[in-house]
Amino acid sequence: RAIAVGHALHVLFASPTRWLLGGSDAGEGELAGRRARVIAFRDEAGNLVRVFYALDTKLPLGAELVEAGSEPPEPIRVTVDDWRWLGPVRAFHRAVYEHRGKRYEYDYTQIRFNDVEAAELR
Hints:
about 50% strand; mainly beta; about 10% helix
């Protein structure tokens, strides 16, 4: 469910513990040619999920997870970029999904958040 729709993917990076268990420092790594701090989680099925945060900007670079219910486990890699300010928050406007040997590129042309007070987003 974390990759089904763009807004859920935004929530995953903003608050990974909403859907994932634990959260431990997995050291430094690399995603999409950039150095990253890696945080390791577990999904509801106990599969490893690694979330990558850029060392220079501290923004999420992407995640590696497992397709829910796949047997054998099928990896999914998601990279995100084109971060822009939307009021008091930053949101990515591009995501690339790599799964089962295919690559899917998405550009988000319009992002809207549920109505909340601006102070809450800060």
